[in-house]
UniProtKB/TrEMBL annotation:
It comes from the Eukaryota. Produced by macrophages, IFN-alpha have antiviral activities. Interferon stimulates the production of two enzymes: a protein kinase and an oligoadenylate synthetase. This is Interferon alpha. It comes from Mustela putorius furo (European domestic ferret). One of its GO terms (molecular function) is cytokine activity.
Length: 165
């Protein structure tokens, strides 16, 4: 059987702390950059998700966050050391999630295809926003703040999963 280690949740908290430390601009200096990306809170409702579905949500969230901050070709205004630490932690989380095949997560459970699609669309809106704003420092600041939502929701979801045992 596949179980997420206890420290997986700690890695999420670490990512949240690093994102908070990466803040470079005040929200007021970027007023004309505000955007509602339509964060899909319902996808993270752990009470309704089966384990395979929850693992799928965690995987998509980590993979898309890693892609945004660690592979997106852009002049992100981040402190390099903090960014490298964030990317390293996200990579470690991805490795652990990928070592946990969805088929082993629960017999008869079906991955949340609709939830995955909703999450992919959410991250696509974020990527398009960055492109439209030409990867400006203010656009990145809006994205940094936005990405804290799915990372926090993932942490809560992980905690619910562990408490269900």
């Amino acid at each position: 059987r596949c179980d997420l280690p206890q420290d997986h949740s700690l890695l999420h908290w670490r990512a949240l702390m690093l994102l908070a430390q990466m803040r470079r601009l005040s929200a007021s200096s970027c007023d004309n950059y505000t955007n509602d990306f339509g964060f899909p809170q319902e996808v993270f409702d752990g009470k309704a998700l089966q384990k395979a579905q929850a693992l799928s949500v965690l995987h998509v969230t980590n993979r898309k966050t890693f892609h945004l901050f660690c592979t997106e070709a852009s002049p992100a205004p981040w402190n390099t050391t903090l960014l490298e630490e964030l990317c390293s932690g996200l990579s470690e989380q991805l490795g652990r999630l990928e070592a946990c095949p969805l088929q082993e997560a629960g017999v008869g459970e079906v991955p949340l295809v609709n939830g995955d699609s909703i999450l992919r669309n959410y991250f696509q809106r974020i990527s398009l926003y960055l492109q439209e704003k030409q990867y400006s420092p203010c656009a990145w600041e809006m994205v940094r703040a936005e990405i804290m939502k799915p990372l926090y929701a993932s942490t809560v979801l992980h905690k619910r999963l562990r408490s269900r045992k």
